[in-house]
Amino acid sequence: MLRLTICVIALVSQHVVDSDDHPKGHLQPLGRHRPPVGSIEERASFPTPLEMFEKYVRGSKPVIFRGILEKGMLPAYKLWTDSYLRENHGSEYVSVEKGKKENRKWNMLNITMSEFLDKYQEEDIYMVNDASERMAEDINMPSMLLCGGFQRVVQNVIMWFSSGGTKSVLHNDGLDNVNCLIDGEKYLVMIDKKLKADVEETGWILNGQYSQVDVEKVDMYKFPKFRNLPWYEVKMQKGDCIFIPFKWYHHVDSKKGRNLAINVWIHHLSKFNASDCNATPTDENRFVSVAKFLQDNKKIDLRDFFLGELEDKEFIDWSFFEDLLKPSGQERADLKKLFGDLDADGDGKIVEHEVMMADLTRILKQLPTLQALVQGENPYDTSDQEESLAESLDPEDIMEDYTENVFDDVLSEDLEHFVNSPKQTDTSRDEL
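RE: above sequence
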């Protein structure tokens, strides 16, 4: 009996030693590997549009606005009870994920709002829905985005709705994001985009911009760079809004209970148009429905799409360019020609000056499916027969938006170099 007891103690001791040998956080939820480096900046009010751009957008700095919805800027905050949504939007069709732990390989369900409201408290479903223009009338544009160019690059407004317990993959977005919590609680793990090499070393899905890491049970052997990965902890309460910068990595965990949020996605602004704000009041008490800006911005400028990618890169080479535009469905030869059109000096690198000088209206006429890619749509969905972006854009209007703020920064000799330099035709595959 004594020998048996000793053997059991030895086995238990060995198990404890083996467990202690694993890296900290192994097979535990994301964030257990080390304490957070801290939380993000907190504010009680929105900044001015200029400060928003300088400090948070260009500065790539997340910020949370505590209790901001209590000030009345979002009618949906008070209005969007289940009974109100059923009465006013019950017949509208919404997109719903089946399952609360995000899996981007699953297809979305398409059901009415009323059907969702009948089921969501009992079933594992999660609404991730592009708000209709009627619903957007209950959502005001944050005052910090009313001018400077922000108002021209609103992409869409998304509604996130469940009974709680949802978990997103670790991902980043090619857009800036203002997320406001109407009901419930959310917990976020946020990782600076500067840590791209560590986050994307293993298991990163480029076409979708997310990690295959299991956020509930991180395998520290499969993802060794996660062992010492710095991260920020954010706890959102009902009434809070958070700004998540372009390309910052984040995982979102919605706590149990009714959980409803909206987010305004805006295309990443590379330059701020200060003159645009002269005649635009931007105090927090000026409420303008975001529906107005959605109507004005059904098309997103391809120029900003490329400028956004250049935000944290010195240039775009052929390899990155091809991966970026593959989802458009264009033939490789067409993409090669497009790359050549943008690469004005033929050095195998697309830089910001070249994007600014490119005739993108002509390009979009030649390659119309790029419009759908820039807007985040299915390039092969022909249900929307609206005019193409190429037809709706005036080249003079495009350049006017940028001339004051961009061309002032570009030396005249730089422009002359790009216009007059001979086209290189002997660039090797290795250089591309």
